[in-house]
Amino acid sequence: MISQKQLIAKRIFDVLLSVILVPLAFIPILVLVLISTIDTKSFGIFTQRRVGQHGKLFQIFKLRTLRNETHNLGHLDKSATQFGKFLRRTKLDELPQLFNVLIGDMSFVGPRPDVQGFADELTGDDRIVLRVKPGITGPATLKYKDEEILLSQQSDPETYNRTIIWVDKVEINKKYVQNWSFCLDLSFISKSII
C-alpha cells in the first residue's frame, strides 16, 4: 500500500507539474470560461462539493457545460449545449481542476472525486481508496472514459452505476493504491494525453 513517504513524493510531483501547467493553461481557461458563460448564460465555472482524501469535502472546479445543472445520471447531455458537449468529449471541461491540484485538494492521478453517497460511505478494506487524493485521471477514469454514454444506454442508469460501475471502480482504485508507483502515475498521465 502507498506509504506516507510516497504520498509526500506524489504531492511534490503534483505541485511541480501544476506550477508549470497553470501559467500555460491560464489564458486558455479564461477564454473557455468566457465562451461557457456566453454559451450557458451562467458564470462559466461550475463548482460542486466532492469527497476528497480521507473523506474530506472540497469544491471541485469545472467549466460549465449545462444550461441547467440538473445532474440526473444518464441524462447529463440532455441539457448540455453543443459547446458543452465538445468540452465534455475533449475533457477540456476539467482544465480548471489544475487549480484543485495546485491548492492540494486533488492529484493528477487518483480515483475520480465523487459526490457524497459513494466514496464517503466506503467501509472496511475499501476505505484505502480514501488514502490518496482524488485525481484528474486514473485507472478507473480511463476504463470508464465513456461512462456517460454507457449510462445513457441503461434502463435504470442510477442502479447500474451503483451496482456495476461503482463496485468495479472501487476494486480498480484499491489496486491502484495497493500497487502505487511513480511510473504507474506517469503511465496514466501519458495514456490520458494520447
How would you describe this protein?
With 194 residues, this protein is mostly helical. The chain has one domain (4-193). The chain has helices at 4-40, 82-90, 97-103, 139-143, 147-152, 157-178, 182-193; strands at residues 45-51, 57-63, 107-109, 135-137. The protein has a two-stranded antiparallel ribbon. The relative contact order is 0.15.
Provide a compact summary of the structure.
51% of the residues lie in helices and 10% in strands.
Helix-strand blueprint:
Elements: H1 4-40, E1 45-51, E2 57-63, H2 82-90, H3 97-103, E3 107-109, E4 135-137, H4 139-143, H5 147-152, H6 157-178, H7 182-193
Parallel strand pairs: 3-4
Antiparallel strand pairs: 1-2
Helix pairs in contact: 1-3
Principal-axes geometry comes out as: globular
Q: Which structural category do the helix and sheet elements fall into?
A: mainly alpha
Largest sheet data? 2 strands, antiparallel
N-to-C CA distance: 28 Å
Radius of gyration: 16 Å
Helix content: 40-55%
Mean residue pLDDT: 92
**How many E strands?**
4
**Count of discrete structural domains:** 1
Query: What oligomeric assembly is this protein in?
Result: single chain
Instruction: Please tally the helical runs, counting DSSP H or I stretches of 4 or more residues.
Output: 7
Low-confidence stretches: none
Largest sheet, spatial ordering of strands:
1-2
What portion of the residues fall into strands of 2 or more residues? 5-15%
